[in-house]
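Tokenised fold entry reproduced for absentees:

. . .
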Amino acid sequence: MTDRQQFDDIDLRILSELQKDGRIRINELAVRVGITAPPCLRRVRALRSRGVIRAIRATLDERLLGYEVTTFVLIQLESQTLSAIEAFEAAVAGVPHFLQCWRISGDADFMLRCVASDVEEMRQQLLQFAGLPNVRKIRSFPVLGTSKDAPLPIPGHLAGPKPAT
């Protein structure tokens, strides 16, 4: 669902609050969005069933867990047939260090975000990419630092409270 008109202001406030704290209790969430707990719970369940809320999970510090290197990898395939794309996607789906995989357009077919404990492990991952089905070209971009890691902007809730006029 892409039509923003399908979300009222309360839905958008619920989504905004859940992005700030996914473990918030329904009673507190209801207070923050200005409704009582039962309709708040119904709305959260409806947002989940519609697929708007895909998951609620903890955001972990990669470095504290031993992943010192994050790399973005661009992959260009030899062929863009449906079977070639599906074979590549199936191959990366089972590799836990490949955290995200996007199908993109332009000079590459896929972009992945990968983590590794060190540069040698990153090198091994790049070799692993070379062995995947139909891979023509691999470009890697090790991350030097992160300057922003924000939740998804919620329409109407982008800048926080509006100043009084």
Notes: The helical segments are 9-20, 26-33, 37-49, 82-93, 119-130. The chain has two domains: 4-49, 63-142.
